[in-house]
Amino acid sequence: MPRPSWKGYLKLSLVSCAVALYNASSSSERVSFNTLNRKTGNRLKQNLVDAVSGEPVDTADRVKGYQVSKGQYVMVEDTDLEALKIDSTKTIEIETFVPQSEIDEIYLDSPYYLAPDDKVAEEAFAVIREAMTKKKMVGIGRVVLNRRERMLMLAPRSKGMLATTLRYPYEVRQDGEYFADIHDVKLPAEMLDIAQEIIARKSGHFEPDKFSDRYEEAVVGMLRAKQAGQAFTVPQAAEPANVVNIMDALKRSLEAAGADSSAVRRPRAPSKKAAEAPAAKAEPARKPKARKAAR
Q: What is the DSSP string of 68-123?
């Protein structure tokens, strides 16, 4: 069983139960590097020094500081932070329930798994989980992680819950300042039809097992080659250029997907050009001349 990152209680009104919070994601499998001395090949150690004297500082003499003005700091001891215990330090109290569709994805931060911490807690945990499932709602609570209070979204997941930390409004940049200069564009119906057809032909299901980290694979290949004393080649990625003729690019994209642009499904009403030649479209395939004229 993985080690929990937090232990405490889940509370709904007067109902509470012991729970544990586990990290639902990990970056430990990624390739990581150490900093070495190029001349000796030995690993380097970080040594903190005084910014003024340049002298190394022992661990016992290191303390946190908050800068109030240039060069002026307020020292904060670990005991000062430990004294700031609030309710969410040991308890996740569900404050409200909301439809999950109302939570903007930009506020979602880090995922955790929430599970009962003992058998006694399983019944109360199951009551809260199943009630949320039947009401199709998620819970919003608070928890202290790494000495910071975080908002938490609780959603039923299998036999447990998915607990996702939420960003505070001051941590989220509003999209207006980035999208304000984008102009409204009136798009031709035929262009949208072809784009929709390409999407339809590329549609599938979400299968994360098929994801591959190509950069990680390239790094591993490079490391294996260097370890074996072999040369390695760096794959060159072509940079796409801005498309000048969008319609031509869409049609070529459709052909690349194994479809003819003339066979596009059109969910909208026929275009004016199609309406002007209804007889030509109704002609059987054995009359190529009429079909060519219609084009």
A: EETTEEEEE-HHHHHT---GGGTEEE--EEE-GGGS-GGGEEEEEEEEESSGGGHH
253, 122: one domain: no
User: What tens digit of pLDDT does each residue of 193-239 get?
Assistant: 988 888 888 888 888 888 888 778 888 888 888 888 888 877 676 66
Domain count, the chain: 2
For residues 278, 280, 282 and 286, what is the CA-based torsion angle, rounded to 10 degrees? 180
Point out which residues pair with 113 in neighbouring strands: 22, 162
**Whether residues 160 and 254 fall in one domain:** no
Averaged pLDDT, 145-161: 93
What is the maximum alpha-carbon separation in the chain?
93
Residue 261 to residue 25: CA distance in whole angstroms: 43
Full domain range(s) for residue 120: 6-26+84-171
